[in-house]
Design goal:
This protein has 166 residues and is of the alpha+beta class. The chain contains four helices and nine strands. One of its GO terms (biological process) is retinal rod cell development. Pfam families: RPGR1_C.
């Protein structure tokens, strides 16, 4: 029983990000509340407009009863107490400073969400889907598309069945 997250690729639209010379390298962080934080092992050069950079990064979160009780309990509480911010995987696009400017901080430039509750409600995993990435300084502005896969339906069903049995 597991949740598989794949960060496939990122494309940027014409936006302040595309034209900002200080933003050169990008990596993606994936977070589920305080329960999990992963990031792509590589930061890649910012893509030109109309092009994509390919991370092809995959991660598996095990949520089996035997070895990952705390994670299962977290998923249970998430399904029992709906809250917009805890039932979603958050993907953050982060600008990695260039090698010669390591005094600069990493900067969050965009974000997007995938709702685990929606996956359960629709009974459908998200497979190689492009989702809008919003500007971290203006959450009404779309700065690009992130292609992701989130396979969680089987694990969520199992946890949901357990909630009903308790």
């Amino acid at each position: 029983e597991k949740i598989r997250i794949e960060i496939i690729s990122l494309g940027l639209t014409e936006s302040r990000i595309a034209s900002d010379e200080t933003i050169q390298q990008l990596f993606i962080e994936c977070r589920l509340s305080n329960f999990l934080a992963e990031e792509t092992p590589l930061s890649l050069p910012k893509p030109a407009s109309g092009q994509r950079i390919h991370y092809n990064y995959s991660n598996v979160i095990h949520v089996d009863k035997a070895n990952n009780h705390a994670r299962r309990e977290y998923l249970k509480s998430m399904l029992l107490k709906p809250d917009l911010h805890t039932d979603s995987l958050q993907f953050t696009v982060v600008s990695d400073p260039p090698e010669d400017e390591q005094d600069l901080e990493c900067e969050d430039i965009g974000f997007t969400y995938v709702s685990l509750r929606e996956i359960l409600r629709k009974q459908r995993d998200i497979i190689e889907q492009d989702i809008d990435v919003f500007d971290s300084q203006d959450d009404s502005a779309v700065i690009g598309k992130l292609k992701v896969t989130v396979e969680a339906l089987h694990a969520l069903r199992s946890v949901y069945e357990e909630c009903r049995d308790d």
